[in-house]
Amino acid sequence: MTQRIRDVMSPAAVSVEPMTTVTRAARLMREQDIGDVLVAYDCDLFGVLTDRDIVLRTVADGRDPDDTTVGSVCTPPPVVTLAPEDTTERAVELMRQYAVRRLPVVEHGGCPVGVVSLGDLAALEDCRSALADISAAAPDH
Fold first, then answer.
1. What mean pLDDT comes out for the span 3-23?
2. Of 8, 42, 55, 107, which is the most buried if we count CB atoms within 10 A?
3. Residue 44 — φ and ψ, nearest 5°?
């Protein structure tokens, strides 16, 4: 069933400025139990930093996360985004086309307002699917 992104997205996306350290961003991810943060300056979306970016572009490259900025390791522009008025079908198309699991949701003017994930879409499609179960599970602490 096709729905609007505003109805399925996770609102209140966490964002950091490009000069934020990777360590600070990783701590925010842990505190908020999320796998990504948006990298933005005011309402300008600069990129997306995922837990995978931290591992592959920081740790695996031997960079010090205390001295590395998120702007230097995040998925760089152009960032594929959705609008709140877009459909879930559009989100699926974009995720397939760009091989991503999360898409920032931005309002007119580019201001980030949320994130829609593959898990959000899986839960919508079939709330009993394995991916929906994993997405709904309590975090490991």
1. 92
2. 8
3. -100, 110
